[in-house]
Design a protein that fits this description.
single chain, alpha/beta, Arc Repressor Mutant, subunit A, Rossmann fold, 7-stranded parallel β-sheet, 3-stranded antiparallel β-sheet, 8 helices, 15 strands, 23% strand, transcription, transcription regulation, DeoR-like_C, DeoR family transcriptional regulator
């Protein structure tokens, strides 16, 4: 059995993926524990104002209209994850960048792959997917206390690796194909990964189109695949050698 703090983190990861859950949906992920233990964890999260009880189960506390939209976007991200699962094969070694898209995507994988990431939440989601062969967290400096590791140690570790695919989530995609990230430290990691990955895969739902962030870390023209939930009406300039799924 995992420690209580890891179990709570795993419950939080479930609610990041799907903002409303019934008790049965939660409990089936933790069959090694008693129902009483899981209910106690949920009640503690309610006392901490992380969750609230609703008629059909539990939801993130103070679910707002923007969070309702996040539920819709999570469905889009699951569709993206299914498309990625069709692309990859057993035995592949894959890097996943930090972010909510990859947090959902790794949960959709059914292939026996090895997953590497510098995002603790993505790592935990991958580690809880029993179909994945191995999940590895790349350590370093937790620069913003959000469990995303960056810095010299992370870069030097990645430079010694090789990936079949690097899967990047984005903050936004400009019409000309520029890809945006809001954190310079993460952008540096993603530039390093690009040097040791055979194929670059961009994953983004249609809510990210025509949006910008603080830093351009890559472009669609430098990528091999762009996976989205709806490839119609993307309003992108034509990019040769880019496969859109």
């Amino acid at each position: 059995m995992v420690a209580k703090i890891d179990r709570i983190d795993a419950i939080r990861a479930l609610f990041r993926e799907k903002r409303r859950l019934t008790f049965e949906e939660i409990y089936k992920e933790f069959g090694e524990y008693s129902a009483m233990t899981i209910r106690r964890d949920l009640n503690n999260m309610i006392r901490l104002n992380e969750l609230q009880k609703v008629s059909l189960g539990y939801q993130v506390y103070n679910l707002t209209e923007s969070a309702e939209q996040e539920i819709i976007n999570s469905d889009k991200k699951r569709k993206i994850g299914n498309k990625l699962d069709e692309l990859i094969k057993d035995g592949d070694v894959i890097y996943f960048s930090p972010g909510t898209t990859n947090l959902v995507v790794v949960g959709q994988l059914t292939k026996r792959v090895r997953v590497y990431t510098n995002d603790y939440s993505v790592f935990k989601a991958a580690d809880s997917n029993k179909k994945i062969e191995q999940a590895v967290l790349i350590g370093g400096f937790d620069y913003s206390r959000n469990n995303v590791f960056v810095g010299e140690t992370t870069i030097k570790t990645i430079q010694l690796m090789r990936f079949d695919y690097a899967v990047y989530g984005v903050v936004g995609i400009a019409r000309n194909g520029d890809l945006y990230n809001n954190h310079m430290e993460e952008a540096m990691i993603e530039k390093t990964v690009a040097l040791v990955a055979d194929k670059m895969v961009i994953v983004a739902d249609d809510s990210k189109m025509q949006k910008q962030g603080h830093f351009i870390f890559h472009t669609l023209a430098q990528s091999d695949y762009f996976i989205t939930n709806n490839k119609n009406h993307l309003n992108l300039k034509r990019i040769d050698n880019l496969t859109i799924l």
